[in-house]
Write a structure and sequence with these properties.
Oligomer: homodimer
Strand content of chain A: 5-15%
Strand order of the largest sheet of chain A: 1-2
Order of helices and strands of chain A: HHHEEHHHH
Distance between the termini of chain A: 28 Å
Largest sheet of chain A: 2 strands, antiparallel
Structural class of chain A: mainly alpha
Number of strands of chain A: 2
DNA sequence: GTAAATAGGACTCATAAGGTCGGAGTTACA
DNA sequence: TGTAACTCCGACCTTATGAGTCCTATTTAC
C-alpha cells in the first residue's frame, strides 16, 4: 500500500495550522488537537519531532506552545515528512535503506523504472511548500 | 511510509518476466521464484491475483504455467497494482475508502494539496506500461 | 507554589505484511 | 488408467509497524 502515515497527516495539518498564525503568536498542542479532533498525545509526539528538526520552535511552561521557525516558503512538504518519519520516503526499500536491504536487488528488473516514479513523487513533495497549502 | 508492498514488487518482476517470453511459451511460478529468489508460495498467490484479473492466463496441469493475456502496451503498472492490492492506491485513506473513512475529513485542511500529489502519482503509474519496463 | 504547557519513555492494541501449510483440481504422458 | 507435475485456493501463523494511551519529568508564567 502506498500511503502516508497518520503521523504525517497530523503533522501536515498541525504545521499548517501553526503557519496561519502571525509570527510570535504561539499555538498549543491542545488547541490543535481540539480543533481537528486529533489524539492529543500522538499529536504532541509529532510536534516534538517537528521541533527537534527545527521546523517549528517550542516554548515550554505556562503560556508556552509552538511557533513556526522558518518562512513558509522555505518549508517543503518533503522536509515535513522527513522530520516526522525520520527517513526519506521511497516506494521501494532499496531506495531508502540501500541495495543491501533488498534480497533481490542484483536480479531485480524493476528498480530502474520504479526509480523514475520515485523521482516523480519526490519532485512533487519537494516543490510543494508550506506557503502553498496555507 | 509511502511504499509499495512486496507483493506488488514480486508481481511486477514476475509479469515482466512473463512478458519477455514469446507468445505461447508458458512460464511456471517455480521458474520465476528460482530465478529471482522469491518465496514460491507468496509468488503463487500474486500470480493467482494477476490471473483472476485477466492480466495473465493460467494453464493448469503438467507443463502448465502462465502466459501474458494482453499486449504489453495495453498493461499499465497501475493495472498491475490494482490487481494485486485489490484496491486502487491512495496516499490518504479518504482517497480510496471515501470521506467517511477519515474522522477528520470535514476539518481536514490538507486533502486538497495532497490530492494533487495523488493525481501526479496516478499519472506516473498509469502512463507506465509493461512494454516500457521489459 | 501552582497551574499549564512541552518532553519523552514505556506500554498496549489493531492492522497489515510476509510467509507457510495442506488439500483439491487439472492435465500430460507412460 | 494411474501417476507425476503442475496450478489453484483458502486457512493459518508470525512478525513488523502504526496508532493510540499512560505516566512522569521538566520548564515557566503568574
Amino acid at each position: 500500500m502506498v500511503r502516508l502515515s497518520k503521523r504525517v497527516e497530523y503533522g501536515l495539518i498541525a504545521i499548517r495550522h501553526i503557519a496561519t498564525r502571525t509570527r510570535g503568536d504561539v499555538v498549543t498542542a491542545k488547541e490543535i488537537a481540539d480543533c481537528y479532533r486529533i489524539p492529543y498525545e500522538l499529536l504532541a509526539k509529532v510536534l516534538q519531532k517537528l521541533s527537534r528538526s527545527g521546523l517549528i520552535t517550542s516554548q515550554q511552561g505556562m503560556r508556552g506552545g509552538y511557533t513556526l521557525a522558518k518562512n513558509p516558503t522555505e518549508v517543503s512538504v518533503s522536509m515535513i515528512i522527513g522530520a516526522i518519519e525520520g527517513t526519506n520516503m521511497g516506494i521501494a526499500r532499496c531506495m531508502t535503506d540501500g541495495p543491501d536491504s533488498c534480497e533481490v536487488f542484483k536480479v531485480c528488473t524493476i528498480k530502474s523504472p520504479l526509480s523514475k516514479v520515485q523521482a516523480n513523487i519526490e519532485d512533487a513533495f519537494n516543490n510543494m511548500t508550506l506557503a502553498q497549502i496555507v
